[in-house]
Design a protein that fits this description.
The longest helix has 25 residues. β3 and β4 form a beta hairpin. The strands form six sheets. Strands 1, 2, 5, 6, 7, 8, 9, 18, 19 and 20 form a ten-stranded mixed β-sheet that branches. The protein starts with 6 loop residues before the first strand and ends with a helix. It contains 19 helices and 22 strands. 36% of the residues lie in helices and 15% in strands. α8 packs parallel to α10. It is α/β, with parallel strands linked by helices. The chain folds into three domains: 351 residues, Alkaline Phosphatase, subunit A; 128 residues, Gyrase A, domain 2, CATH 3.30.1360; 50 residues, no CATH class.
């Protein structure tokens, strides 16, 4: 007998049980409460860097970033110190919806990050935040569906423009924009559920992540904060989606959790400089003024010029954006005297290695390994400059946390910070380092950051009731969904079925199916953005709080 099970997946970007559970206990989130009582739920471990690009891709593929090749929304261009924005064409693994569509089932996918250009599948796809704009070719599959979407929902919004409105002093408008984005996504979801057949339906709401990034400081347990209002709207939207979903299993998940911005990454380059591992160029007063002036002009152009004007400027000065942004990320570094560096915003360190970086000075092999060992040891002992508390839970080599053919794309060292306090600066126990070394670092616009634990709620007739799940990982969601759909699981993906969630009798009578399925992506080449498209992506990443 053919399996007719259906699975509805609702992504709530950045959602955390640290907020949900207290609000559930206060009867403020009735839909989350009902789903948790009626199913299995628990923390969902994100990818090691807890970044949305890597995490949503790991959800989609069942693989760790070392296999699927996506670590961030951008990446260092090999052989340079420049970054480029990337998209789903850089993904090296097949996805959940590829497997389901290939099996002859109908699929609908809405706004999952890292899905532009939209995949060709048996159904409908609306791409995510890596789409330059709604008019971009590849925003929907089929392409013709875009006209239908626009006819139903005028000016469909991918992401609310929160930071621009906040910088302009329009906080209320920013909040309104978040609500409008949620509501338009719900309208698209309702329309597609009613209009098109589906066996797998996936939709992701990102407003929860955006509001946590920009409104975390406004949190008040005794006041209906903006963050709570967004969660409340999501709770209501999930209830309405379930009303339209019919008889299906439901999976609610987030790609990572949320909390205050602990700021450790901002201090890595200063610390590396103090350790003698990074050197800045000697500049006189005139050069410093020129550098500050150049940086100010670039920021002014970026903030004030229209997108059209910036596009014209990019055509007159080809490559200028990449060079300027490289200078911004790695400002004034003397590469010929630098052994290690960071970009100042991520929990990672790169070794300036010969044969990989254009001005690398660290030999591959023994010197590289000894340097990594030294940095890991010293950073593991590092303390906060104000409190004296250790700042890192653990410092990892990349191969300790990633595996696969694309580990070479990962940073050489990853720092897992303590999350109990905001870091003021890094200091080794045997150093006398003044706070003045760090005071020039201005805090970013966002007060919220990511945490390793997202959420997972699974409900349906095949699922245990009122069960707390332990040790679930985001790579486990795809094989679990395939199992619920009665489809075979590729035997070489990293994830495993979350069997603890499945009803014992159902599991006993429905043994999992495994099959040797081609898991490498069939996409032929990586598609770089044009300068115009890259500018649009940059704006969206600012909107989400990923860059300042």
């Amino acid at each position: 007998m053919k399996n007719k099970n259906k699975v509805l997946v609702i992504g709530v970007d950045g959602a955390t049980f640290d907020l949900i559970k207290p609000w559930v206990a206060q009867d403020k989130l009735p839909t989350f409460a009902k789903l948790m009582r009626g199913g299995a739920s628990g923390n969902l471990m994100s990818t090691p860097n807890a970044n949305s690009a890597s995490a949503w891709t790991s959800f989609a593929t069942g693989n760790n970033p070392g296999k699927h090749g996506i670590y961030y929304f951008d990446e260092l261009v090999y052989g340079t110190y420049q970054k480029r924005y990337i998209n789903s064409s850089f993904r090296k693994s097949k996805t959940l919806w590829n497997y389901v569509s290939d099996a002859g089932k109908k699929v609908v996918v809405i706004n999952v990050p890292m899905t532009f250009p939209a995949d060709e599948l048996d159904g409908i796809m609306i791409a995510g935040v890596d789409t330059p704009g709604i008019w971009s070719k590849g925003f929907t599959f089929p392409v013709s569906f875009f006209k239908e979407l626009q006819a139903v929902i005028k000016d469909y919004t991918i992401e609310a423009d929160v930071p621009h409105l906040i910088k302009a002093g329009k906080k209320n408008s920013a909040v309104t924009s978040l609500f409008e984005t949620i509501d338009k996504r719900y309208e698209a979801t309702k329309y597609l559920m009613k209009r098109y057949p589906w066996d797998l339906f996936v939709v992701v709401f990102t407003a929860t992540d955006s509001v946590q990034h920009f409104f975390w400081d406004d949190m008040d347990p005794d006041f209906d904060s903006v963050i709570f209002q967004i969660y409340k709207r999501i709770d209501d939207v999930i209830s309405r989606i379930l009303e339209n979903a019919g008889d299906s299993s439901t999976v609610i998940l987030s790609d990572h959790g949320g909390g205050f911005n602990q700021r450790g990454a901002e201090y890595l380059n200063v610390w590396l400089n103090e350790m003698g591992l990074l050197r800045y160029k000697e500049t006189n007063k005139v050069e410093k003024k020129l550098m500050r002036g150049f940086d100010a002009v670039y920021r002014f152009v970026d903030r004030v010029f229209s997108r059209k004007a910036k596009q014209k400027l990019a055509k007159l000065l080809p490559g200028i954006r990449e060079k300027v942004e490289a200078a911004t990320h790695f400002q004034n570094i003397e590469w010929s005297l630098t052994k290690a560096f960071s970009d100042g915003s991520r929990d990672e360190i790169w070794i300036n290695m010969k044969g990989r970086e254009p001005e690398g000075i660290v030999e591959q092999g023994e010197e590289y390994e000894k340097l990594r060992d030294f940095i890991i040891h010293e950073l593991s002992q590092c303390c906060d400059i104000k409190t004296g508390k250790k700042v890192a839970k653990r410092v990892f080599r990349r191969e300790e946390i990633y595996s696969g053919k694309h580990v070479s794309k990962a940073p050489d060292i990853y720092v897992d910070w303590q999350r109990e306090f905001i870091i003021s600066g890094l200091q080794n126990r045997d150093q006398s380092l003044s706070f003045k070394h760090y005071k020039h670092i201005k805090p970013p616009i966002w007060s919220g950051g990511h945490r390793e634990n997202g959420i997972l709620i699974i409900s349906g007739s095949m699922v245990k009731k009122n069960l707390e799940l332990i040790n679930s990982n985001i790579i486990d969601v795809t094989p679990t969904i395939l199992y619920l759909l009665g489809l075979p699981i590729p035997n070489d993906i990293d994830g495993r079925i979350i069997q603890d969630a499945i009803d014992d009798d159902y599991l006993k009578n429905h043994a999992p199916l495994y099959k040797s399925i081609e898991t490498d992506s069939e996409k032929a080449m990586e598609k770089d953005y044009s300068d115009e498209e890259a500018d649009k992506i940059k704006k969206k990443l600012k909107t989400m709080g990923y860059i300042d």
